[in-house]
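As a warm-up, study this chain.
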Amino acid sequence: MNRAWLVFGIVGLALLLGARAAHADGAASAREHFDRGTTLYDLHRFDEAAAEYERAFELHHDPALLFNIGQAYRAAGVPSKAVQFYRSYLRRSPRSPNRAEVQARIEELQRLIEDEKAAREHPPKEMVTTLEPAVVPAPPPAPIVAPAPVRPPGRNQKIAGLTVAALGVASLAVAGAFQGLAAANRRELEQPVAGYRFSAATEDAMNLDQRVAIGLFAAGGAAIASGVIVGVLGLREPRAAERRVSFVPAVGPGRVAATVDIRF
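Now compare it with the structure written out below.
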């Protein structure tokens, strides 16, 4: 049995767990920016709303957020940026049900941009003043498309707990394998067959396997306990996903350890 592959397997599982926890945190933050952007949009603070939607998209790549950004810039009177984000939305969501509507809006804004450019390049020579200038009301903003629902916080916490517990079970399984190797070497030393010659390498391997097994047993037990705790918190606490748990194994020459970090 290749000991290096066993240890690398534990490290890989730990990295996978860290990636899942980071994803859960990013989704929760994206929801906060989205809610803030919607509030600012309702207050007609469209530039600020667009900035919040952009922050949400950086954390949660839902194409619907690109549509929201375009809507905010269109309402803010920045047609060039609105066109950019509408096009990004169509590129990321080519089969969107409102594709025809968005395409028509892009064409409308493009004509507006070209008219403004022509007015700057060829301003009128004479100005006509009227007593009551006509006022063209701006069209009301179209409804905002909400992004795909983010997993509820408790669910993310339960998934993290199950993952930590599964990692602990894997650690116990690998520890059992190392324990078996140590037991085999001990039998070879304590019950030698006829003609056996003592080998210091066998004794060193036995000691190393024993130490690795003990370290992995301890790490696996700690991971299972942590996973159970986090899973229970996910069931009982509505905002349990705001807490963080991490399980990091440490492997070195002659040493196997693990660090479990739970933050409240």
